[in-house]
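As a warm-up, study this chain.
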Amino acid sequence: LDDDEHRQEFFQARATSEGKKAADIAERVLVEAGFDIVKSPVKIPKVGVQFNFLVEDTEGGQWYVDVSGAFTTVRPGLMRTDTLWKTLGRIHVLRRTDEPQNPSRVLVLTSNLPKSNSEGDKALRAVGADQVFDAVEMFDAAGLARLAAYAEGGAVLPIPGFWTEDDIERYEAATGSA
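Now compare it with the structure written out below.
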C-alpha cells in the first residue's frame, strides 16, 4: 500500500471508531433517560435505510433514533453539512413508509447541532417537527431533560428546546395533535 492508501485506511478506521463511540454514548444517554433499546441498529429493508436505534418509552411508544456525527472532527455532529443532509434523507425515506394513523417519531442525537441561523440550522428547521420530533445535543442538560420526558411516554408534541413554541404550534395545527 502506498501512503495515500494508508492514509485512507487510517481515516476510515478512525471514522468508524469515532462513529461507534458516538453510538455508544447515545445508547448510554437513551438508557439513562429511561428508554428501552428495542433494536440496534434497526434496518428498514423495504426502503434501504438504517437507524442507530429503535427505542421504546415506558408506555410502549416507539421512537427511531438517528445518531449523527462524531465528536472529534473539525466540524462535529450536524455542523457538517454532508452529515446533516444524510440524516435528513434517511428520515424523509423512513417517513414516506408511514401509515397516516401511525407516523414514525424520530429523535436526532448529535454531538453538536448546527450553529444558529447557519445553512444547516435552516435546513433542519425547514423539515419541521413532523419529520424530526426533536434534535438533541448529547451533552446538553436541557436536551437530556427533554429525552427523559419523552421516555416517560405519552408525548404527542415536542417539548420546546430545539423547536420553538411557534414551530410546535405550526406542527400541532398541521397534524391535529394536541
